[in-house]
């Protein structure tokens, strides 16, 4: 798993460092931030430790209302949970004793003028992506009509050429050749590029194309959720190519099951058009409609009538 340091967060969100300048190298261990509640009361084993703690208006105003000694006690309870840092939002004045306690425990205290909800939303999204487990695979990643598609197949089968045809139809390239997959949750895989192949598409006999320079910003997307895995294969003469599949097939990426189909290649086939059809058909299935199931129901209905 990749790591994120407090210093990276400070730079990313332009945070003011109130104390703990020498401890910004500390690494985050949890991917979600917390707002303290029971943490102020005492130490409880059932509350997770080592989360970034956010002090919004409610928390700071609560601490300011307390007598000095009780305020220090509540802060002392909070630091027992070993947060890698504490962030004060809305540009508020730090509560009495906060920097002192945190300095003793080597916990940086940071501040931002952003609202609590804005900071939590952006910080959670950033940390989840930055710390997500990832792998790199050979293939092409496209966003077709808003649906993230992973194109796979043997080298030379025509993945990049198909991607180029899709771009000409108004769809968006995410990554060519090397696709970085990140597991954001047990149900979500994100496809993205690395800095080396960003915006580039490699076509045999043509060379490298910068799709943004050629076709504009709309031809490229930084990342997309992978919702369909398509394998391009050579045409098999002895294979059944018009089967009626009602049972979905899946491929596993880091424990996440992604719907999978195969498209066989043959001269004259409109592969880009077939991928568009596959994407739209997947969308309908996700909405609860299956053309195959409706067809079977019609056959069954006709059989009963006869």
Description:
With 306 residues, this protein is an alpha/beta fold. Helix content is 32%, strand content 27%. The strands form three sheets. Strands 5-6-11-8-7 form a five-stranded mixed beta barrel. Strands 1-4-3-2 form a four-stranded mixed β-sheet. Helix 6 crosses helix 8. The longest helix is centred in the last third of the chain and has 16 residues. It is elongated and about 85 Å long. The mean pLDDT is 94.
Strand share of the residues? 25-35%
Kindly report the CATH topology of the largest domain.
Answer: Rossmann fold
Shape: elongated
State the CATH superfamily name of the largest domain. P-loop containing nucleotide triphosphate hydrolases
The largest sheet, given as strand count, sense and whether it forms a barrel, is: 5 strands, mixed, barrel
Uncertain runs: none
